[in-house]
Design goal:
The protein has 443 residues and is mostly helical. It has 2 domains: 43 residues, no CATH class; 336 residues, Citrate Synthase, domain 1. The chain is 49% helix and 5% strand. The chain has a 3-stranded antiparallel beta sheet with strand order 3-4-5. Strands 1-2 form a two-stranded antiparallel sheet. Strand 3 and strand 4 form a beta hairpin. Helix 3 packs across helix 6, helix 5 runs antiparallel to helix 6 and helix 9 packs across helix 17. The structure holds acetyl coenzyme *A.
Length: 443
Amino acid sequence: MAKNSLSIIDNRTGKQYEIPIEEGGVIRASYLRNIKTGPDDFGLMSYDPAFTNTASCRSKITFIDGEKGILRYRGYPIEELAERSNYLEVAYLIVKGELPDRKHYLAWEHNIKIHTMVHENIKNFMQGFRYDAHPMGMLVGTIGALSTFYPDANNIHDLESRRLQTRRLIGKLPTIAAFAYRHALGFPYVYPDNDLSYTGNFLSMLFKMTELKYKPNPTLERALDVLFILHADHEQNCSANAMRAVGSSQVDPYSAVAAATAALYGPLHGGANEAVIRMLMEIGSPKNVPAFIKAVKNGERRLMGFGHRIYKSYDPRAKIVKRIAYEVFDVTGRNPLIDIALELERIALEDDYFVTRKLYPNVDFYTGVTYQAMGFPMTMFPVLFAIPRTSGWMAQWAEMVRDPEQKIARPRQVYTGENLRHWIPIDERPEPLMREDAVSDRI
Ligand code: ACO
C-alpha cells in the first residue's frame, strides 16, 4: 500500500479503495467516482457549497497562510512589497512572475501608459449613464463594452494578444474609474497625463480642476500606491473565481473582467469597505459601540470589515492600511470615524464571540476611513479595489488559459427537486400547492 494514499472502505459494499494523496495534501475528487455500489451507480461525489474545502486550480501567483496571517505575491512578503515597491512593479511581478530589472520596468511602464487613453466612444457611452449611476455599475458596464472595441481579444490562446489585453486593461481601468467619478459630479472628464505616475495620473484624472497641470500630493500618491499594492491579488477569492469560471468558457478577457468586477461589487467582497463606513456612520460615536457589538452577537447585525474565509488571524493587509491611515490623516486631517473603528476593534478583539470564531479586521476595515479622508465618496471604494485587482485577475486568467488541466468550469449538483411528472393542460391543473417549505424556493 502506497504511503501517500488514503484507504477508504465503502461499508455499503465492503470494498476498499486507495486514493493517492498528491503534493500539498490533495486528493482528486474524480477518484470518488470509482466508489460505486454497482455498474449503474454514478459513483460518489463531494459536496462543497461555496468551495470551502475544494481547490479549483494549481496556482503560482499568491500564497496565503490564513492561520499565521501571511500573504505573499510570487513568494515576496506583502510587507516588503508595500514598504519598498510600487504598484506597477508589483503588477509586473504578479502578471509575469518575476520582479523586473530597470530596463523591463521602464518598458512595462511605457506599455501601460500608452494604453491609458480610451476611445472617444467609450467616453460618449459613459455619458449615457444616469447622473446618479453608481460608479461600480458604470465600471462593470464599461469594461464589458471594451470587448466590442477590441474584437481581437477573442484570440485568447495567442500570447501576444493576452499581453496586449493585459496592458490595455491595467492602463485603462483608472481612466474609466475616474470618468465614472466625474460623471456623478457633472464635471468634464479629464484625460490622462502620462508624465505622472500610475496613481498620480489617476489622482489627476479625478481631482484636476482648472489648473494646467495637476500636482498630486506625494504622501497621498504614495498612500494610494501602497493601497493598490495591497489589493493586487488574493488568490481564489470570489472575483478571481468569477474571472476563472467565466474565462473558462473562452470568452474574451474584457467580458471576464466585467464579471469579476461584478463579483467584487457585492458587500461581502469588495463592497465591504463601503459597508464599513455606512456601519461606522450609523454607530455614530464610540460610546454606542457596545450596543452595536451586542446586536452583532445576537445575530441581528454583522460587523463589516471583520472576518475572512481564509484569515483566521489579523489580515496582514489590515495592519499596513492602519498605518497608512495615519499617514493620510497627517495631510488631510483625522477622519473622526477612526475612533469608532478603533473602539470596535478593541472591544471585538477582547470578546469571546469574536475570539472563538477567529474574527479579526480584514483589509476593508481601515481602507474606508482612509479613502474617505482622501476625499473619495463611498461609492468609489469598490472601484479603488477593482483598479489594482485587474492585474491579479489577468494573471489568474492567463494561468487558467495556459493550464492543460483546466476545462470549462462546470460544478455538479445534488438534485433535490421533483421526480418525473407529466404535463397537464392548463384548465385541468389543480391549484398549485403552496407548501410552506416551497415558498423559499420561489423567486
Ligand atoms: N460579524 C459577525 N459575525 C461574523 C462575521 C462578522 N463580520 N463574520 C463571520 N461571523 C460569524 C458567522 O455568523 C459564523 O458564526 P456561527 O458559526 O455562529 O454561525 C462564523 O462567524 C463563521 O462565519 P461564516 O459566515 O461561516 O464565514 P465565511 O467564511 O463564510 O464568511 C465573510 C467570510 C463573508 C468575509 C464574513 O466573515 C463576513 O461576512 N464578513 C463581513 C463582510 C466583510 O468584511 N467582507 C470583506 C471580506 S475581505 C474581502 O473580500 C476583501
